[in-house]
UniProtKB/TrEMBL annotation:
<dbReference type="InterPro" id="IPR051791">
    <property type="entry name" value="Pra-immunoreactive"/>
</dbReference>
<feature type="transmembrane region" description="Helical">
    <location>
        <begin position="157"/>
        <end position="175"/>
    </location>
</feature>
<keyword id="KW-1133">Transmembrane helix</keyword>
<keyword id="KW-0812">Transmembrane</keyword>
<feature type="transmembrane region" description="Helical">
    <location>
        <begin position="30"/>
        <end position="53"/>
    </location>
</feature>
<dbReference type="InterPro" id="IPR010432">
    <property type="entry name" value="RDD"/>
</dbReference>
<feature type="transmembrane region" description="Helical">
    <location>
        <begin position="127"/>
        <end position="145"/>
    </location>
</feature>
<keyword id="KW-0472">Membrane</keyword>
<dbReference type="GO" id="GO:0005886">
    <property type="term" value="C:plasma membrane"/>
</dbReference>
<feature type="domain" description="RDD">
    <location>
        <begin position="21"/>
        <end position="189"/>
    </location>
</feature>
<keyword id="KW-1003">Cell membrane</keyword>
<dbReference type="Pfam" id="PF06271">
    <property type="entry name" value="RDD"/>
</dbReference>
<feature type="transmembrane region" description="Helical">
    <location>
        <begin position="73"/>
        <end position="92"/>
    </location>
</feature>
<protein>
    <submittedName>
        <fullName>RDD family protein</fullName>
    </submittedName>
</protein>
């Protein structure tokens, strides 16, 4: 794929040939990010969720007020999560790379070769895409249940199924070389994921 080199050192906007990141490297980067996220959430789960689950009693909800929280552990867990999110967003804004993409030596670029920055990589490609998928799936789920005269649970089930279907569509799109392996996220943000050149 040919893109315009946005490097200020390049005089006259030189056209550079880049290789599109493979489906395997993109899937591996996603899985690595998932592992890192789960690891970061473990202290939070241990400090907040487990005490709630252990003391949960629908018959006697006042038992929840008797939980003894480990303040430093809760604060540390929330701080760790916040630092992780800020560093991920900073890396994605600065270099178009999450932790997983950095390890796999791939990055997100705009289709013209520029760095998408915070707005393109974080807000459009990640946040807005997930918001659109969630809202659209929920609305379609409720519309279908209105026609079928189903309940709220049916609407949520249909919405979740539609959401998962969109992720499957994105997975299939990763294997389409003729479209530069662009997923729905890439189309929304006008981005492409490329291999970093060997140094």
């Amino acid at each position: 794929m040919d893109i315009l080199d946005s490097n200020p050192a390049s005089a006259g906007g030189e056209i550079v040939d880049v290789d599109i990141a493979s489906a395997g490297s993109r899937i591996a980067a996603y899985l690595l990010n998932t592992v890192f996220t789960v690891l970061v959430f473990i202290p939070l789960l241990y400090s907040i969720v487990l005490p709630l689950v252990e003391h949960w009693d629908e018959q006697h909800p006042e038992i929840l007020s008797q939980i003894t929280w480990n303040g430093p552990l809760v604060a540390g867990s929330l701080l760790l999560l916040l630092v992780y999110l800020v560093v991920q967003m900073w890396l994605m804004s600065k270099d178009g790379q999450s932790f997983g993409k950095r390890i796999l030596k791939i990055r997100v670029l705009k289709s013209n070769g520029e760095n998408p920055g915070f707005w393109g990589t974080v807000m459009l490609r990640e946040v807005l895409f997930n918001v659109i998928v969630s809202i659209a799936s929920m609305i379609i789920g409720y519309l279908i249940t209105l026609v079928l005269k189903g309940g709220t649970e049916t609407a949520e089930l249909i919405g979740n199924a539609l959401s998962q279907l969109l992720w499957i569509v994105c997975l299939v799109m990763l294997f389409n070389k003729t479209k530069n392996r662009r997923t729905l996220q890439d189309i929304l943000a006008d981005t492409v994921v490329v291999k970093l050149p060997k140094r």
